[in-house]
Amino acid sequence: MAFEIVYKKSVEKDLAKLGKTEARRVLDKIDKDLATRPDAYPALRGQFAGLRKLRVGNYRVVFAILAERVLVLRVGHRREIYR
Fold first, then answer.
1. Any idea what the CATH number is for the domain that residue 44 is in?
2. How much is the pTM?
3. Residue 83 lies in a domain
């Protein structure tokens, strides 16, 4: 079962901060892994309960699973993403 990937508007700004090569690497990982098995990634706790994360090197992708869709909320460096 393939999930539809939907991006929040602010993700475009997040990706612009990464640079072209890192942004491409993150997008490739999202398209490859989140489209097929988004539930395989760890759930977050605390104020981010209900969301999940995908690791791509030092970067994190925070997303939510909504029925047949995966909503990508934020992309950023691991030390800044949870602030």
1. 3.30.2310.20
2. 0.93
3. no
